[in-house]
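Try this one yourself first.
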């Protein structure tokens, strides 16, 4: 009897895992379709006859993801982070900053702590680059509040150390005494 009961429990776990996997696959498929739609215009000319630049396509993507993922904040956050990274790589810090902030806002509380800490540190650094040092410190305060004590994981501990290093750098720039 115990074996049959255990088999039922494992069967239920497998069904839950399969449902979660199917949801993740649907989300990934939707994200791929939106990106394919956005980048389908690559290589074509804009209204003035000039070839579209990568930044033009990123701008188009930014407008599209809000509508495409309005009902799925977690997927929207992933797309905002992806576009923020692309803008950052293109040297468009002012366009990346609001996307990182939105990605953080849309990241679910159930997201891994490490992912949230890294995103917060990156957002804080962008705020500093934009001259928003105090706002950068506020983001780091939120990150430090998330840090488990003790960290338990080497990567989380490393992220915590990097957050402290970033904080010290900002405080030095602000002229905090003793730094």
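Now uncover the answer:
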């Amino acid at each position: 009897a115990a074996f049959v009961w255990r088999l039922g429990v494992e069967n239920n776990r497998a069904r839950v895992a399969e449902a979660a996997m199917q949801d993740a696959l649907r989300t990934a498929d939707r994200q791929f379709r939106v990106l394919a739609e956005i980048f389908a215009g690559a290589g074509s000319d804009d209204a003035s006859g000039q070839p579209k630049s990568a930044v033009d396509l990123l701008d188009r993507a930014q407008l599209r993801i809000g509508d495409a993922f309005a009902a799925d904040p977690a997927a929207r956050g992933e797309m905002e982070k992806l576009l923020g990274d692309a803008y950052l790589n293109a040297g468009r810090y002012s366009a990346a900053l609001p996307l990182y902030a939105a990605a953080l806002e849309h990241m679910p509380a159930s997201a891994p702590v490490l992912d949230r800490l890294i995103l917060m540190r990156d957002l804080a650094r962008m705020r500093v680059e934009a001259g928003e040092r105090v706002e950068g410190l506020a983001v780091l305060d939120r990150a430090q509040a998330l840090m488990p004590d003790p960290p338990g994981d080497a990567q989380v501990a490393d992220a915590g150390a990097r957050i402290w290093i970033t904080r010290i750098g900002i405080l030095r720039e602000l002229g905090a005494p003793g730094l």
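Discussion: The chain is about 75% helix and 0% strand. The helical segments are 2-39, 54-68, 73-89, 93-106, 113-129, 133-146, 154-173.
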